[in-house]
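Bench notes, afternoon.
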Amino acid sequence: MMGGLTKEQWVARYSRSHQHPVNRVCHTLGIPLILASIAFFLGGFFFHGLWIAGLILFVVGWIFQFVGHAFEGKPPEFLRDWRFLFVGVRWWWAKIHGRA
């Protein structure tokens, strides 16, 4: 599924397409918002109205992603290769640990 590349190679590829400082900040903020939105969506099954917060977090997170790519001057990698949708979280984790 991941094309024979290691996790580190995918993260390195992702990192190369996210060089602009504004794009990196936007992704550093947007990725965890998208992740948090999943928890809020799931919580919405148990707590009335929580899905609305999840929707807001999801939309804001993706706005950050696309604003960042506007600064980068190129479209998101996942538009060419859907597997990059699974790499963003790994890149974010590597970045907050000083490895990306």
